Amino acid sequence: MSKSTNDDSIGRASLFLASGTLVSRLLGFVKAMLLASTIGLVGSRSADAFGVANQLPNTLYVIIAGGVLSAVLVPSIVRSIVHADGGKAYMNKLLTITFVVLLGATVAAVLLAPALVSLYSLNLNEETRALAIAFAYWCLPQIFFYGLYSVLGEILNAHKVFGPFTWSPVINNIVAMAGLVVFMIAFGADPNGDRLVTDWTPTMIAVLAGTATLGVAAQAIVLFFFWKRIGLSYRPDFAWRGVGLGATGKLAGWSFAMLGLTTLGGLVQTNVALIATGVGAGPATLQNAWLIFMLPHSVITLSVATAYFTRLAEHVREDRIENLKTDVSAAVRQITLFIVLATAVLLVVAFPFASLFTDQFADTAAMGFVLMGYLISLVPFAVLFVFQRTFYALGDTRTPFFFTLVQTAVYIGLALACAQLPREFIGIGLALSMSVSIVVQMLTAGILLAKRIHGLDMSRIIRSLTVYTVAAIPSVLAGVLLIFVLGGYTSGWALASPLNAVLTMALIGVVMLALYVGALSLMRSEELRDAIAPVKRRLRRR
Questions:
Q1: Any idea what the Cα angle at residue 469 is, between residues 464 and 475, rounded to 5°?
Q2: Where would a tag sit more exposed on the chain, N or C end, judged by fewer CB atoms within 10 A?
Q3: Is 468 exposed, middle or buried (0-12, 13-18, 19+ CB in 10 A)?
Q4: Alpha helices in 81-201 (DSSP H)
Q5: Radius of gyration of the chain (CA)
Q6: Tens-of-pLDDT digits for all 542 residues of the chain?
Q7: Residues in Cβ contact with 508 at an 8 Å cutoff, skipping those fewer than 6 apart
């Protein structure tokens, strides 16, 4: 197969993944805005209580999807596909043990809900903590469905059926949004977070948290309908010996250790952030700022890297290390071509974006500065993701544990220092701390990966990143000028309404995109040419 055909295949898969992720993320923002209208955001004790409870299963999911399962499953499934039965026995056994482990973990988490919530809410008062525990009983079953979603999705991805994994979260968001609408109709909206935590009834808690979990369940279960496309059908199989699950378990062990590290970091972050509850940016604000941060990462980085990951695993299986290096370099350069622009645009429109979640300028500024703090590390975060996935393709989950250990140590130290800041500055301090720790983690991972595969195409990567950065400068200057003219930093027209904010972001985004592409064209960027080549070929065919 030619390089052009390979690149077209990666491009098509990435585009399809990106489209599903974009739709899902846009609906996710609508859901987040509805949630902010329902229970408030900055300074809302109800929002922070729900944020603590709903973040517990989400924290586990992020690691399971990006670490434990993704680290182990795709390489293992790719290897099992060459078995005489096409890997069917392996996948039935794998899914059975997944059901058992997830069910056990979920039941344990629900039983331990008071203790888990207490660990993450040392700085909440008793009434708010009691509300968080009540939410948690409804939210923690999401652990089972998030894990199931990850396993089913990775099996489909390994068979190069990418669409369902990225499109099924759309169902999740639709169900959750319907739940929020029902809540507001039945119990009223509370955009300023004025509702007392003692005003919540069991029915209110069940509607808000229960529909959130129902959406996650629908997201996972719908993936079963796509198994027939790859010729699979699930039959429970408890005979777990003899198909390589032992090796899979050893790989997963290091990933679970990494889970422990990340959970510890999240524990520290949540408790430090709760110091600001009622005054500044607390857990709910940090979660929504991180949601915006993850938009370009999900639409661009995850989409491209997921399409590449199966090919990286194939290179390892066939011992094609030079091809592995080439694809790692290509993935980093292709992803960062777009991520640099996304970083620049989001830094400029941080305030208008934050205003979609609140109509108070002080709250907009608080969330906007937190978002800026996170965005500093968006490019390193994307590069780190590719490096991490390369280790997973190599069947190495131990090394990611160690560079995650470095990141966690740096972050915890900085986060604890943030506890000494004035309460209104704790949120931005935590965001900046996260960015610093991600940069350190990316550098550590790059050094270790270069040592593992005897070099990386770093000179080419650095040269491309330099070109992207220089090309972004004119677009940033133009974007900042426009945002000042439109009053985006002074509670002016750009922040007067959600529609104004969206129009402002759209205008600035188009202007910055045009200037960025123009600058890259003048600099004769090879990556830009490669990115638009498939589009040109398709247009010629028509």
A1: 135
A2: C
A3: buried
A4: 88-111, 113-119, 126-139, 142-158, 163-167, 169-187
A5: 23
A6: 444 445 555 555 555 555 666 787 788 888 888 888 888 876 678 888 888 888 888 775 555 444 455 555 555 555 555 555 555 666 777 777 777 877 887 888 899 889 888 887 777 788 888 999 999 999 999 988 888 887 787 777 666 666 777 788 889 999 999 999 999 999 988 888 788 888 999 999 999 999 999 999 999 888 888 776 666 667 776 665 654 555 555 555 565 666 667 777 777 888 888 887 777 777 878 888 988 898 888 777 776 766 666 677 677 777 777 887 888 888 888 889 999 999 999 999 999 999 888 878 888 888 899 999 999 999 999 999 888 888 877 877 778 888 888 998 999 999 999 999 988 889 899 999 999 999 999 999 999 988 888 888 788 889 999 999 999 999 999 999 999 999 988 888 999 888 999 999 999 999 999 999 999 989 888 878 777 766 566 556 65
A7: 345, 348, 349, 479, 482, 483
Length of the chain: 542
How many angstroms separate the Cα of 185 from the Cα of each of 181, 189, 204? 6, 8, 11
Quickly tell me which residue has 């000494």 as its tokens.
Answer: 420
Q: Among the residues of 320-397, which ranges form H helices? A: 321-348, 350-355, 361-375, 378-393
* Sign of the CA dihedral running 313, 319, 324, 326: negative
The answer to whether residues 134 and 199 touch, using CB atoms and an 8 Å cutoff, is no
In order of 17, 143, 164, 313, the CA distances from 167 in angstroms are: 8, 20, 5, 24
CA–CA gap between residue 103 and residue 381 (Å, rounded): 32
Q: Which two tokens stand for residue 159?
A: 């068979």
Q: Kindly tell me the burial class for residue 63, based on how many C-beta atoms sit within 10 Å of its own C-beta (0-12, 13-18, 19 or more).
A: buried
Q: How many CB atoms lie within 10 A of CB 535?
A: 11
